[in-house]
Amino acid sequence: MCGAKQWMAGACVGVVAAAGLASSGSEYCRLSKLEWAMLRANLDEHDDGEVAHYDPETGRALLNFPKDRGVDYQHMRLEIDIPDMNTPRWSASQSLVFTPIAQPLRELRLDAHLLEIESVSASGRSASFDHDGEVLTVRFDPPIAKGQRCELVTAYRLSDPPDGLFWTPESDAWPGRPAQIHTQGQPETNSYWFPCHDFPNERLTTELIVTVPTGFEVSSNGRLLSRSSEEGRDTFRWLQDGPHPNYLVSMIVGKFDIVDLGTDELPAPVYVPPGRGDDVVATYGNTMRMVDVFEKAFDERYPWDRYAQLVVWNFGAGGMENTSATTMFGTAIYGEEHTDDTDLDGLIAHELGHQWFGDMITCRSWQHIWLNEGWATYTESIWFEARDGRDGYDADTLTNFDRVTDRDEANWPHQQPMASRQYRHPWEVFRREANPYPKGASTLHMLRRKLGDDVFFAGVRRYVDEHKFGEVETADFRRSMEAASGESLERFFHQWVFRPGVPRLEIETSWQPNGSGGRLSVDIEQTQNIDDDNPAFWFELPVHVYFEDETEPEIVTIECDTRSSSIEISLLRAPEMVIVDPDLHVLAELTIEQPATRWLAQLDRGPTLASRIQAARHLVDTGGPDAGGALESAARDASLHRKLRQECVLALGARDDARAIGHLVNAGLDDAYVRADLVVAIREMGERALEGDEEAPLETHAELLATLEADATSEAVRRAALEAIGALSLDGLADRVLAAASVESLHDRVRAGAIQAIGDLQMREGLDVVARHARPGTNNRTRALAIETLVTLAEHDPERVFGVVREIYETDRERRSINAAGQGLVDLGDARGVAVLEARAENDRDRFTRERASEWAEELRAAIEEGEAAGAD
Amino acid sequence: MRRSAAAVCLLSLAFLLGLGALPPRVDPASGRDLDNWPRSHPFDHEHMDLRLDVGDMDRPDIRGEVVHRFRAIGRPRASMTLDAVGMRIEGVSMPGRRTAHRHEGDRLKIRFDPPLPPGEPVELTIRYRSPELRDDGVGLVWSPGVGRDRSPQLHTQSASDHARRWAPCFDSPSDRLTTRITLTVPDGFLGAANGALEQTQVEPDGRLSWTWRHDRPHASYLWVFVVGRFETIQLGGEGSARPELDIPAYVPVGTGDRMGDVLGRTAEMIAFFERWTASPFPWDRYAQVICRDFRFGGMENTTLTVLNGRVLDVEPGEEDDLIAHEIAHSWFGNLVTCRSWEHIWLNEGWATFCEALWFRHDAGGDESIYADMVQSWTDEIQATTELRAPQNTSMASRRWSHSDDVYGRPDDAYVKGALVLHMLRARLGPEVFREATRAYLREHRFGEVETHDFRRALERVSGRSLERFFIEWVERPGIPEIEIEISWSEADRLLRVRGAQTQPIDEANPTYTLDVPIAVTMGDGSTRQLTLDLHGRARSASWSLPEAPTRVEVDPEMTIVGAWDIDKPRAWWTRQHSKGGAFGRIRAGRALGLAQATPRGSVGCWCCRAPMGWMRAGEFARSENR
Predict the structure, then answer these.
(1) What is the pLDDT of residues A719-735, one digit of tens each?
(2) B260 part of contact set with chain A, CB < 8 Å
(3) CA of B80 to nearest chain A CA: how many angstroms apart?
(4) Per-residue confidence band for A53, with pLDDT thresholds at 50, 70 and 90
C-alpha cells in the first residue's frame, strides 16, 4: 500500500503543506501522529500504544500466523453484473478452481464477509455449505481426492459492503461527478466482495467479467480480453494470467479520461477524472522512465501485461499497488503549474516498485510486510538516484533514516520490531514504530553499503530469480543475499529486522597535537536502552579524515558492538575535517562533538549531501555568528540540493536567528520547499518563545508569516503559513484565515490549512465554513479535518455541532468522515452520543464497525461518568 | 554423532574445563550480544587434497600438506582466515601470487597479493607439522599400543569443530567440499578415510600410502581418518540386502565373525532408509570402524562411521539403534547438513527418529515398538528438570559456550528433536510426513539447511501453516504438563472434559496451543472424534451423547508430547488397555499399574541407551582385551 512517505513527500494530501516539506525532521515530528492516523483513517484509529504480546489471564502468546492453505488455488473467474451504478447491489457468480493439497478435502473454508451466498456447487454437483457472515464453509461428501481438480461455483449477492469495496454514487453534494466503484483488498478486505483465501500466502490467476451500464469503464488486473455491448450494457473481460495473491485483486468502475503513457509492448494507461487528461503528463510523465530504471536495476522485466494507474474518489490511502493496476488517491492529478511545490514521483515509483516487490514476490505473512513496503520505499530512492543523482539518493535515504530515528526505540518487548507476529489487526503492521516503510528501505540501503553495489544487486537478481511469483519470508531474502555475498547476514537481519530500535550515538572526536602531528581519538557511546533483551548494536562506523589540500580522505572503520568503543590514531598533521559516516552506512542518531571550525568546513566542503546536512544540524548549538552567516548563505544558494537548503533554514530557526530568517523571507527564495521550511522555522521560534513566556510578543513572526501566507506561487507555502498562524494563535491574522477557507487549491490544501487554523484560533466566525466542509461535497481528507475541527469549536454552538457530527456518523458513506465523526462523538462528551454509538454497536452488519462503535461508546460513557464524579466533588 | 555415552562425556569434560554453563544472552558489563552467529564464508571451498605422513605409529608425528581449491565469492578478496589449532604451520603458497601468513591462536590468516577475483578457482598449499595428539576424545586421538595384542591406533573426531586440529581448513558446517586424503602409514596398518579407495602405494621405504577420494561434497565436521590394524569384514555385496554397495567393517582382529553378526543388519537398514526416503544411498560406500578410545557412541563421518568399542560386548541386535542412527545420518546430516550448530536437531533429531522407523519396519510395521520408543523419549525429556526460558535454551538456540555444547543440552536435540518429528508425523499423517521429508531431501540434497527450510518443505507438501508449531516446540525449551479430567454424567448425558496446562506459565513461557483429540467409543462400536482446544491455561467442555461411552481415550495418536495426568473412570482405562492403539495401551498400562515405568521394545536394545552412561576406562580395556 501507499508508503506513508508519499503522504508527506508526495502529495501533501491534506496533511502536509507541500511536497518534500515534511522531509525536515522537526516538521515530521509534528506531523507524524496526524499523518499516521490519517493514513489508516478509513481502517483504524486505535491508539498506537503497546500491543500486548502475552495474556496473563489465559497464559497465551498473542501472535499471528499464516492461515493453513489446504488447497492450491489455481484460477478464479468472477462474473459480476452491476445493473445500476447508483444502487450499491449486485449479483455475482464465482468459479474457483483448486486442487486439495496432501489430503482428501472434506471441508473448505473461504473468507466471505457479509456476502449473501445463494448457491454453491462443486464440479457440477451442488454442495452443502454454511455461512456465518464471515466464513463460508463448504462440505464435500465424498471428499475431493488429493490432487483432483475441483471447480467450485458460488452464486452470491452483494449489498453495499462496509469495507473492501467503496461505492461512490452520484450525489447532489458533488454535482456532475459520475458514480464510481473501487476496491481495496489489503490487508484482508477483498473477502468483502468475493469469497477467497484472504491471506497473502496463496496466489492464483484471476479473470473478472464485469457488466456495467454503457458509458462506464471497468478496469481490473492484467489485460482486457474483450469488451462488448448489448442493450445499453457493456461487458468487460479482464484476465490476469500471472498468478497473484487475493489481496491484489482490483476492480474499478467509473468514468475517466484515459491517457496511455506506454508502448505497444507495455501499455501504461492513466485513468483520471473526466476533463483532467491534459494533466496526466505533468503528474505521471516519468512513469515509463521509472519502468526502465527498475528493469535495469533488478535485471528483471516488468512482470505484467500492462501498468495502469487509476485515480479514484474517496480513496483511503495514498496509493495501492494492485497487480498491474495501481489505485491512486483522488487528487493525485495536477498540472504544470503545481510542479514547483508538488512532486508525486515518490508515490508513483513506490507503487511501480511494488509490481516487482510485493506483487511478483509477496510477503508470506504480514509479519514480513517490510519485504513489500521496505522494498517499495527503497525503489523510490533508486528512482531519485536515477533522476537527481547521488544527492537525490542521499536526501531520500536521510529522510528515511530520520523517520526511523524519530520513533523507533530499542525497547523490546515493549516495542515491537519491524518484523513481528504481534498485532490485533493486520493493518497495525503498516504503522509500527519500527516502521516497515522507512526502516525497511534503510535496511536495504545499509545492506547495499555493506556489500557494495555489485554484490547487492547480484543478490537482488538472485532473490528475484529464486522467488519470482512466490511468497517469501525474511529468511528467503537473507539466504539469497548470503549466497551472492558469502557474508553471514543473520546477525545483520536479526538486529535491524527482528529487533526494535536504532543506535543512538554520542561521539566525540578530539585532536591532541604533538609536534607537527598528533593523535586523533574518536569515542563512541551507544546511549540507547541496553539491557538483557536489547544488546548493544553491532556495526562498523566509518570515519573519514580529510586534510587541507588533499581530496582523498583517510578512512578509519570502527567496529562497535559494546556500549563504548573508541580508537586513537596518529596523524602527521591536523585534520581539516573528521566526518563520521558520510555515506550513511549506519542507521543511527548521531550527536557529535567537535570544534565549530570543522563543522563549518564540513558544511562548506563535506563530500556528500548527508555530511553537509549533518554539519548544518550540528551548527545549531555552536559556531557563533560565523555559523549563522554560513547557514544563511547556503540556504540562499540555488545551486545546492534543496534538502541541504531546507536543513540550513531549520538550523537557523533552531538558533533563533530571526534576523537571518527575516532576510530569507524577504529575499523571496526561488524554491517553494525552502520557503515552506521558513514557515516551519518561524513557527518553531514562536512556539519556543511562547513556551518561555505565554505573552511573548510575536509581531515579527506575524509579519513574516503574513508575507509567506500571501505567497501567490505556492499553495503549499500558504498552507504551512496558515497552520503556523493557528499554532501561534496570531489572532490578528484571523481575517486572512477566514478568507483562505474559501480558496480552491490542489488537494484542497489551502482550505485544510485554514480549517486547522480556525480550530487553533477558536474562531467562532469560522464555524459556518468548517461545518460546511464537514459535510459531503468536500475532499474526503479535508472533511475529516473539518469534522475534527468542528468538534473543537463545539462550545460556540453545542447543539449544532452535535447535530452535524451525529448526522455524519449515522448517514455518511465516506469512511474517513464516519471515523472522524465517531471519534468526534466521544470528544464532544455529549451524553446523547452514547445512544448513537450503542445503536451502531448493536445493529451494524460489520463486526469491525460494531467493535469500533462499542469501544467509542465505552470511552464516552467512562468520560461522562468521570465528569459527573468530578462535578459531584 | 551418537551421543549416549558421548554427551555425558562431553558434558563432564565441559564441566571440568569450566565450560558448558549457559552464558547470558547479553554481557551485562559491555552490553555485547553473546549469541553465536554463523560465520561468513567469503570463499566457496570446492576441494581439499590432504596428504598426511603419520610417521611412526608408536609415537606419531604427523607431517601434513593440504591443498585447498576454492573461489572468492562476491568481491575480490585479499585475505582469508582458516582454522588451525595445535600444529606448526611450515609454509603457505599459491601459484602466481605472493602470500603472507600469520598463525595466531586458532586462526591462520593468509594474505594474497594480488587479491583473488571472485569466481576464479585458485589453489592454496599449506604445509604443517605435528598436530597435537589428544586424549580427550576430540581432534586427533592416539591410542597407544599395549603389549603384543594391542597395536596403536589413530582416529579423528571432527564434530563439532575439531577438524581444525588435524587439517588447516575453513571449519564450518555452512560449507561443503570434496576431499582426497592420502595417508602414509607403517606397513601392516590400514589407513582409512572418507570416500572410496583410489589407490594404495608402497613407498620406497616400505611404508604404505592409502589414497581415499571422496568426490561428493561434505562438511568439515564429517572428515575423518583412522589408522590401525583391523580385520575387515564385508556386510554388503552378493546375498546382502544391498548387493551393489560396498559395506565393509573394520573390526578388532579376531572379532570378525562376531561383529559380522552384531553389525549384520547394516545392509538391510541402508535398503530400508533408501526406500523410506525415496533417495538412494548418497555415497560411494558405507564403512564402519570400531576405534579404541573413541569417546562417543558413534560418529557418522561420511562413508566411514566410527563406532564405540562397546559394540564388542553386546549380543546381535542390542546395538541396532546405534547402527541405525549413524546410517540415517548418511541422509540426515551428511547429505542435508545443518547450516550452523543452532540447527543441530535437524541432524540428531532425525537420526534418532530414524531409529524408531527402523524398529517399526523391522517388526513388520508394528506400531507398538514405535510407540514404545516415542514413549521412552518422552520419559527421558520429562525426567529432565523443568525446562523454562530464559534460564534454559531450546534445542535450537544460538546460545552456547562451545559448539560441542549443542550435543548435550537439557532440551535435548536428539530426544526432543525426535519427538518433534513424531508429532509432525502424527499430526500430518505418516504419508504426508514422509512425502514432505522426501521433498525436503530432494530440495536440499548436498545443501545446508536451517530449521525453516524443513518447515517450508512440510508446509508446501501439507498445505498447513506450521510456524506456530515450530515456535512452540522447537524454539522454546521444555514440554507441557497437561491435566485432563473426563467424566460421564448419566443424569444429563454429558461427557464432561476439563483440561489444564500446569507447567509454569509466564511471559517467556506462554501456553502451548493444544488441540487435544478425544476419541469416544460407543457401545455399538461407533466412534466420535472430539477436540478440546486447550490453547490457554485451562478449558472445560462438555458434549452430549446418547448414551454412556464404553471408552474415552485422550490423544490416542500422541499428537501432543507432554507430561500427561489423565483422570478418568477405571473402566475406560481397562478397555483402552485391551482395545486401544499402541500409545493408548502404554498409557493405560501405566495408569492401571500394569507396566514398568520404562517400556522396552521387543528388540531389547533400547535399554542400553541411557544406562550405558559413563564410559569408564576399565570398560575400554575390557573390550580391547577381547
Answers:
(1) 999 999 999 999 999 99
(2) no
(3) 12
(4) confident
Instruction: Tell how strand B122-129 and strand B88-93 pair up.
Output: antiparallel
State whether residue B505 sits within 8 Å of chain A by CB: yes
8 Å CB contact of A562 and B31? yes
Which cell numbers hold the place of B91?
Answer: 609454509
Q: Which residues in chain B touch residue A68, judged by CB atoms under 8 angstroms apart?
A: 463-465
CA of B471 to nearest chain A CA: how many angstroms apart? 11
Pick from A291, A324, A309, A310: which is nearest to A222 by CA?
A324
Please report where in the chains the cell 485422550 appears, as a residue.
B554
3-state helix, strand, coil in chain B (%, to 5): 30, 30, 40
Task: Tell me A11's DSSP state.
Answer: I
With a cut of 70, say whether residue B623 has pLDDT above it. no
Contacts of residue A873, defined as CB under 8 A and 6 or more positions apart, other chains included, come to none
Predicted interface score ipTM higher than 0.90: yes
Query: What letters, b where the CB count within 10 A reaches 16 and e where it falls short, cover A765-789?
Result: ebbebbbebbbbebbbbbbbbbbbb
Tell me the residues of chain A between 476 and 495 that have a Cβ less than 8 Å away from chain B. 484-488, 490-491, 494
Residue A486 to residue B74, Cβ atoms within 8 A: yes
Cβ of residue B529 closer than 8 Å to a chain A Cβ: no
Q: How far is CA B4 from CA A330, B10, B298, B299, B348, in A?
A: 69, 10, 9, 11, 12
Spatial CB neighbours of A672, under 8 Å, sequence gap ≥ 6 = A18, A340, A341, A711, A713, A714, A716, A717
Shortest distance between the Cα of A195 and any Cα of chain B, in A, equals 19
pTM (2 d.p.) = 0.94
| Residue B104 vs residues B62, B87, B101, B528: alpha-carbon distances, Å | 20, 11, 10, 68
pLDDT in tens, A179-231: 999 999 999 999 999 999 999 999 999 999 999 999 999 999 999 999 999 99
User: Could you give the C-alpha distances from A834 to A42, A44, A873, in angstroms and in order?
Assistant: 22, 20, 23
* Shortest Cα–Cα distance, B292 to chain A (Å): 38
What are A544's strand-pairing partners? Answer: A555, A579
Cis status, amide bond into A513, omega within 30 of 0:
no
Q: Which cell goes with A475?
A: 529468511
How distant, in Å, are the alpha carbons of A24, A529, B597 from that of A502? 19, 10, 53
Cell 483422570 sits on residue:
B567
* Mean pLDDT, range A373-387, rounded to an integer: 98
Q: Do B9 and B615 contact (CB within 8 A), yes or no? A: yes
* A413 lies within 8 A of chain B by CB: yes
Q: Cell numbers at residue A325, please?
A: 493496476
CB contact under 8 Å between A71 and B463, yes or no, is: yes
Nine cell digits for residue A184: 481495496
Task: Report the 10 Å Cβ neighbour count for A872.
Answer: 6
Quick check: A486 and B44 CB within 8 A?
A: yes
pLDDT at A37 over 80: no
- Whether residues A65 and B467 touch (CB distance < 8 A) is answered with yes
* Averaged confidence pLDDT in chain B: 91
Task: Confirm or reject contact between A538 and chain B (CB < 8 A).
Answer: yes
Other beta carbons within 10 Å of B200: 13
